[in-house]
Amino acid sequence: MRRIEKDREPACLADLRGTPGAAWSSVHGTQRQQMREHASKEQHGLCAYCMSRLPGPPSAEGMKIEHFKTRALSPELVFDWGNLLGVCLGDVGIHDGGGAHRDRYHCDTYRGHLPREEQRIELNPAASPPDVSSMFSYTNQGEMRPARGLEPAMRASAEAQIERLNLNIARLQRNRRAVIEALRSEFQKKAPRAARVKALLELSSTPDSTGLLPPYCQAAAYYLEKKLRQLG
After folding, report:
1. 143-174 residues labelled b (16+ CB within 10 A) or e (exposed)
2. What is the pLDDT of residue 103?
3. What is the pLDDT of residues 87-129, one digit of tens each?
4. What's the N-to-C CA distance of the chain in angstroms?
5. Which residues in the chain belong to E strands, given as ranges?
6. What is the pLDDT of residues 147-159, one digit of tens each?
7. What does the pLDDT look like over 7-42, one tens digit per residue?
8. Cα-based distances in Å from 142 to 52, 96, 168, 194, 198
């Protein structure tokens, strides 16, 4: 998970807040598309939670707008851009069948199947502090864990976030592991030097010429930062 720098909100949100009786269900297709485009751009083409690639161009078939604090628990934030994130479909298109496959879902799709009182999560990628980039670690096998050294309350929040978004399902671990393995393979061919590790870290953390970051880039960044510390 990576910190999101929120940009200026889409114009439609001010219109919705100024419309008496407006509800999320009344948001029409053009407005939703405007939000998807804004979210995808400021998130550099990645899901806010699992960091998989969002479709380009953004569409309802490949992403949705998620309320970090749910509409049921925080109705006052329904049209607050800081509370709205672009997320993937959580594998719902792969595993149709609703609750029968919910253990294979992830991100907002999985959280939406939990009892309401269990849907609360605390670490908003678009809010700082805390910076979510420093809240999680990644093993070489692709498992996502709370970062070392967190105070107990923050560690509990990080654990709950991983669990309630189902971010350690096999497919996501596999994808993160592949990113890390590619880096490990390069270093096995040639012993890493600090300059090369720094260059790879810059590459994994900087959007390309089209504004996109590589999928699962935070797993790569964590591995490379650890490698730099080992090199001294």
Report:
1. bbebbeebeeebbebbebbbeebbbebeebbe
2. 79
3. 999 986 554 444 556 778 999 999 999 999 999 999 999 998 8
4. 26
5. 64-67, 84-87, 136-138, 144-146
6. 999 999 999 999 9
7. 999 999 999 999 999 999 999 999 999 999 999 999
8. 13, 25, 8, 23, 21
Residues 6+ apart with CB under 8 A from 191: none
Distance, CA of 180 to CA of 144 (rounded, Å): 12
Q: Which two tokens stand for residue 205?
A: 């953390």
Distant-in-sequence contacts of 195-198, Cβ < 8 A, 24+ apart: 197/224, 197/227, 197/228, 197/231, 198/228
Q: What is the pLDDT of residues 55-82, one digit of tens each?
A: 989 999 999 999 999 999 999 999 999 9
Q: Tell me, what's the pLDDT at 95?
A: 45
Beta-strand relationship, 64-67 and 136-138: unpaired
Q: Dihedrals φ, ψ of 53, to 5°?
A: -75, 130
Query: In angstroms, rounded to a whole number, what is the distance separating the alpha carbons of residues 152 and 131?
Result: 16
Our CA angle for 23, 27, 33, nearest 5°, is 150
Q: Is the dihedral of CA 157, 163, 166, 171 positive or negative?
A: positive
Q: CA 61, 65, 69, 72: dihedral to nearest 10 degrees?
A: -70
- The residues, ordered by sequence, that sit 6+ positions from 160 with a Cβ below 8 Å of its Cβ are 121, 122
CA 161-100-74 angle, 5° bins: 40
d(CA 231, CA 18): 55
Distances (CA, A) of 43 to 16, 163, 175, 184: 23, 22, 19, 27
